Amino acid sequence: MRRRRSSRLTELVLGIRMSVSGGRSGWARLALIATGIGVGVAMLLLVASLPTVLDTRATRDAARVPGTAVAERGDDTLLVKRVYSEVGTEIVVGYLLQPEGTRVPLPPGVDRSLAPGEAALSPALLRLVEAPGGEVLEGRWGERIVGTIAPDGLVGPQELWFYLGSDQLTEATATRVDGFGRGTPGGSGVADPVTLLMALVGLTGLLVPVAGFISTAVRFGGEARDRRLAAVRLVGADAATTRRIAAGETLVGALGGLVVGAVLFAVVRAVVPPLIPPSLSFHGADLRPAPVLAVLVALLVPVASVLVTRSALRHVVVEPLGVVRLSTVVRRRLWWRVALPVGGLALMVVPLVTDGRGAYVGDAQQLVLPGMALLLVGVALLLPWFVDVTVRRLRPGSVAWDLAVRRLQLESGTAVRAVSAVVVSVASLIAVHGMLGSDTGMPGLDGERFEAQVLDDRPGSDGSHWEAALAGTPGVRDVETEVRMRVQPVADGEEVPLTIGSCARFTATTGVSGCAEGDVMVVVPPGADAPAAGTEYVLGEPGSGASTWSLPATAATVEPTVADLAGAPAFLFATPEALDGAVVVPSGALYNASVTIGLDRDVPDAAEHVRTAVATIDPTAMVMINDPEATSPMIGAIRQGLLLGTLALLAVVGASLLVNVAEQLRERRRPLAVLAAFGARRRTLGVSVLYQVSIPVTIGLTLAVVVGAGASTLLQAGSGMPVNVDWAGIGFTAGGAAAVVLLATAAILPLLGRMTRPAGLQGE
Amino acid sequence: MTAVPPTPTDRTGGTAALPPSGPLLVARGLHVAFGPTVALADASIEVNPGEVLALMGPSGSGKSTLLHSLAGILRPDSGTVTYQGRDVTAMPDAERSALRRSEFGFVFQFGQLVPELTCEENVALPLRLAGVTRRQAHRTARDWLARLEVPDIADKRPGQVSGGQGQRAAVARALITRPRVVFADEPTGALDSLNGERVMQLLVAAARDTGAAVVLVTHEARVAAYSDREAVVRDGRVREQVRA
Questions:
Q1: What is the CA radius of gyration of chain A?
Q2: Please, are residues B169 and B106 in contact by the beta-carbon 8 Å criterion?
Q3: pLDDT > 90: percent of chain A
Q4: If you ran DSSP here, which 8-state letter would residue A540 be given?
Q5: B48 contact A CB<8A
Q6: Closest chain B C-alpha to A407 CA, distance in angstroms
Q7: Could you report the predicted ipTM of this complex, rounded to two decimals?
Q8: Residue numbers in A near B99 (CB within 8 A)
Q9: Considering the entire predicted model, what is its pTM?
Q10: b/e per residue, A708-739, with b = 16+ CB within 10 A?
């Protein structure tokens, strides 16, 4: 028994020795395998690092969340208020800090207390301020920037974050705390269903190609290995021995791949964090694979590699005098290949049929998530059959075309394996792009006017000072103030929303025209109850000094025409003149002044000028820009993330194709040299390689577009989104993949040139 | 109609008489080294129109390197090869490719047919590379397969035919463009003696029929017996030339 085990070990070691003793060609093959597996391993390590990155980001974020509110002012308390701003489409977040004593705690990354007007910015935000054109941001975050926030106070190097000392906070507008770091890491910990769906689709789109990539890389040099095994058979090895030797050979490549993957991962760790958009930023040091997942990668990749090799050898009979391939007689069957995607499709369609639109936002996800995964994996299974069927029907053409088509007819497995990664990636990316496109395609989201809205919720502020304060700010065309509050009847009765503003705003928000200065309107959406004329209301908190005001009998009752107000309760609208000098005292969260600032698109950075001007007047005021021509910051961030993901995936796909084609050329070195000896032009051979790569890619991309667009439609309908096809996303993704194929082929041409030298016939 | 091949003993059969126009290919002072290994050292030889020249010598003597240099496959480190007065060694790659396409044909030891193409497609390939229409190229290929006595392998792939059949297809491929010179590197090396004899008979007969010269690398005397002239290559030099 012991002897038998020792003999097996010897065979394994023989395989290892054979893989490293093949001279330059052997090392080239080993390098290709290690590179191929290495790229896959690097991707797996990146995915394995996601939990750590997310955890560390959440922990760092929680460490700067102000503690729970304390009632009593003390020597160690401070008032804090979280405020938001935007620069372009990037969100900038920070806290206003107002110390109440001498021993106040400091947020992480800040080493001293900030006096009013003093600010500490994140390095990325400071770079924005100091960059050319950054003058427009001067003063937005205080009068003096006294330092930068240290890395331990930020979730990533690109994060846009600030702390600003203040003396304008009150207990009513801010929270009193005596420490930081009492937040809950990870927030609610539950992503919304649509995001979860997109994440799953994206992750499947990433992992399936990586798995395909690794399995392709493991098969590199298979023919040369089979010839070596035949030689070993000739000297007496049995079939089982050759399999163990092959396993030994594969192990070396897999272990080399682990090393290459670790090196690539280290490079990504050092290079990528500064390139990540601010909203997704993380520290390079936080990009660490979760230990369990890292061990799994280190174990499973070599094991999977050996299994793939054994599976490849199932179709090969290694005999002492040569190798017989069984693959050419095997016709690919459709029935079992179609089972997986059809099953996946069924899981996705059933909830839609039973529950209708929006069915996926709920328990149906338990069906939809595996359904989507099955559909995407199924595409990879369908592709070989599609390629098989299609290339069998292709008509003869030029020499280059015939060479490519005949090659694919004889053996399309290698080409298809490389392309299946592209197909799954593209299908999943098209699905995610489709969902995003639908998300941004909702009509009326941003209105039609380029304007800023300032929410002034300071108690007692009626917003009347904004017009004068913003006068002279570049890009400001007009300023209109609206006060929104709920008014209580003097006698018993229900509160009613009251809006005090201009007729122009009234028409813009209700769609009702015919308003004149001094008018009062009762806006009654269908199904709502109208308040009675003559009812007396208090225009603010009872006891605040607010006047009472009576709803005049002349008030017109109107029905809003904008869809947003459908189902809303009735509300009152009055122009300031109609209140006839009554004292309005808005206070509290439900009572605020809303300032609408019309912006001039022709003034560069008009929005930034307004944001900065508003911040200098009231750092707590929230500014929202409505720009019909811009995407929302959140969608922008998701799009940026998706763009990065798409590019990363396309880069992997390109690398995969490159090494795959390189390996195919290496294996076909001699036939290519013979063709060159016969005088075949390089162009003919180059075009032949291009056809050989692009025929399966074209078939695959067609399949990917159909499946991706179909899945996207189902996901849109299931998530209750408007159903539309995102042709731009399809074009971008499919076009990107096609460009990658062309680039990979172009990059391989120098190698093709070397491979097709007729001197390759020389044996010496 | 298939040409009657000469028998091995009939060394002067066919069109063995040399035309007066001078040598077709001339190699002078060829040096080729692969790293520290010198394959050719001051090798010189001439190939006359229509003759069958056998390059003989032990393994590693430089026979194949000389053949590849003559055919413009390999560019020697020094020395010249001229074809009909044109310096092949000075030609750019594209021009040498064009020369091989139009003037030369090749037969290799293992046939080296393109595995994914059928035998007919393999034979038609040089014509198609030269720009002949697909239909015409395939018609001529079928004629050549018949001429080489293997018409039934037309639709088979190289992996589905025997070594002898494959080598006949390779001979047909080499001759289909009616080249001026056929380079044959150990054309019978992978065949049994019977098949080897038949392939040589067909090769030489067809070459004589088309007027092509044949440069034949072999270390087998019975194969060299088909030649008009034998040159012995030893240590990278052409040591002796014997008119057979």
A1: 34
A2: no
A3: 6
A4: B
A5: no
A6: 5
A7: 0.77
A8: 679
A9: 0.63
A10: bbbbbbbbbbbbebeeebbeebbebbbebbbe
